[in-house]
Design goal:
By secondary structure, the protein is α/β, with parallel strands linked by helices. The protein has one domain (2-195): Rossmann fold. It is 42% helix and 12% strand. It is built from seven helices and five strands. It has helices spanning 24-39, 59-67, 82-87, 96-105, 116-126, 135-143, 168-189; strands at residues 2-4, 13-18, 43-49, 90-93, 113-115. It has a five-stranded mixed beta sheet with strand order 1-3-2-4-5, with helices on both faces.
């Protein structure tokens, strides 16, 4: 678990969810933690998967993250629980299948659970958090008009491709895509909060 501190900000809890919790979600967790730390924000960021736990991050993911100056070699996978999903202020899934798993596991998590590309797309459409606007308030705006049926199947637009089992270059592409998405999400969701009192 990565904990960041900023006294004047709330401490949202962000859960990053994928299948095995050995490549996409630990990479996204690390990138988001570093980005928010650079801005001085408080957040509790952790990741989980749909499968059994205790596995290290894939060597290719460790290598790629090292290229970003981030060490995820100590990461160990864990299986997501209903409590994780109930407690998270925001769940960032790597693919639609993970959103479906989250909502079946904890139905009340639906309004706070998006794929990362989906939330970036919706956030871009509604605009950045307003000064003083809470994270739940912004997510409510992003959720408006969203239908569960839209998350059936898979989507090149909503999913971060899983590099597991593929060539090393696939991990590099995944990390670059995640970095781009995380940067945009932070621009939309956290950077405006610097204008707020808390």
């Amino acid at each position: 678990m990565t904990t960041l501190s900023r006294v004047t900000s709330p401490r949202p809890e962000v859960l990053v969810l994928c299948t095995g919790n050995t490549c996409r979600s630990p990479m996204a967790q690390a990138l988001l933690a570093r980005r928010l730390m650079a801005l001085g924000f408080t957040a509790v960021i952790h990741s989980a998967g749909m499968l059994g736990g205790g596995e290290p991050a894939r060597p290719e993911a460790v290598r790629v993250m090292a290229g970003y100056g981030i060490d995820i070699s100590a990461h160990r996978s864990r299986m997501v629980t209903a409590a994780d999903l109930d407690q998270a202020d925001l769940t960032l899934a790597m693919a639609r299948e993970h959103v479906r798993h989250a909502v079946v596991t904890a139905p009340a998590a639906w309004p706070r659970t998006f794929t990362l590309p989906e939330l970036v797309r919706r956030g871009t459409a509604i605009g950045s958090r307003r000064p003083g606007e809470s994270l739940p308030g912004w997510l409510n705006r992003a959720q408006a008009g969203r239908q569960r049926t839209a998350l059936l199947g898979s989507s090149a637009d909503d999913d971060v491709a899983d590099p597991a089992g593929g060539p090393p270059h696939g991990y590099e592409l995944a990390a670059a895509f995640l970095s781009q998405l995380i940067d945009r999400l932070v621009e939309l969701c956290w950077e405006p909060d610097q204008l707020a009192a808390g």
